Amino acid sequence: MIIKTPKPITLYKDENHSCVLFYDLVAGHGVQANQFMIIDNGQSMLIDPGGDLTYIPLTNAVNQFTNASTRDLDYIFASHQDPDIISSIDRWLMNTNCQVIISTLWGRFLPHLISSFMGEHGASSKARVIELPDSGQRMPFGKNEIIFLPAHFLHSVGNLQAYDPVSKILFSGDMGASIGEIKGSMLVKDFAAHLPLMQWFHERYMGSGKVCELWVNMIRTLDVQMIVPQHGKVFKGKKMINQFLNWIENLECGINLLGRKNFKVPD
């Protein structure tokens, strides 16, 4: 593993509130991933902090950005259970005082990732896990709030996303993810040119066209100025966001594509 120089990008900043993207922290065979931090009036939250590959470079990057120790971190939000989302959680629990926010479907699986931590701290570790219902939840954060949205089967059975009403940023997890080396700007400039980097991933990983349609209908009720996925580039501005929503709303994917022909005993 080669630890690279952190490249924080400020997505939003005012006097009391900021959102930062960290990317390209590790060189090697790991899948490229974005990590995010929100700070509001002194409270801080990391979103989808990743696994062991990203733990040290992300810690270094956060410390440089905040000029404070990560031990003061208040929350970690995990959109779902994948290793590139949360497999470093034992190290974050050991080295910070944070609470972990996750779907109630995955909260009971966390002991498999934090068994050594739980062995030392016992029941107190469970008090540091905030389990969210399937319907999502509004949670006070700083002097404002974060809205956790249901995004089940996109792609995880217990998938949630975070919407920040102050910055109007949707932290969308794997929805909108693109696969491939990032060149140039982190913003999607040409949707048609960007589409091939998303197509296969969404066709294979998202549950069905119906759940994509339901998700789009929900997102259109919000004032979203930016969609930032866990992998790849960022969608910024209403025009680009609408291009993505129009595409994913009508995408044939998941079980619609696999169908009955794939559910048979191999020859």
**Alpha carbon gyration radius:** 18 Å
CATH structural fold name: Metallo-beta-lactamase, Chain A
The pLDDT mean sits at 86
Quote the beta fraction: 15-25%
Low-confidence runs of at least 5 consecutive residues? none
Number of helices: 10
Please identify the structural class as seen in this structure: alpha/beta
Q: How many discrete structural domains?
A: 1
- In which range does the helix fraction lie? 25-40%
Fourth-tier CATH superfamily name = Ribonuclease Z/Hydroxyacylglutathione hydrolase-like
Q: Please outline the major beta sheet.
A: 7 strands, mixed
What overall form do the CA principal axes indicate?
globular
The count of strands amounts to 15
Q: Provide the CATH architecture.
A: 4-Layer Sandwich
- What is the rounded distance between the termini? 40 Å
Strand neighbour order, sheet with most strands? 2-3-5-6-7-8-9
Give the H and E element order. Answer: EEEEEEHEHHEHHEEEEEHHHEEHH
Helices, strands, pairings?
Layout: E1 2-3, E2 9-13, E3 17-23, E4 26-27, E5 34-40, E6 43-47, H1 52-66, E7 75-77, H2 83-86, H3 89-95, E8 99-103, H4 104-107, H5 115-121, E9 129-132, E10 137-141, E11 144-150, E12 160-164, E13 169-171, H6 191-194, H7 196-205, H8 209-219, E14 226-228, E15 235-236, H9 238-249, H10 255-258
Parallel strand pairs: 6-7, 7-8, 8-9, 13-14
Antiparallel strand pairs: 1-4, 2-3, 3-5, 5-6, 10-11, 11-12, 12-13, 14-15
Helix pairs in contact: 8-9
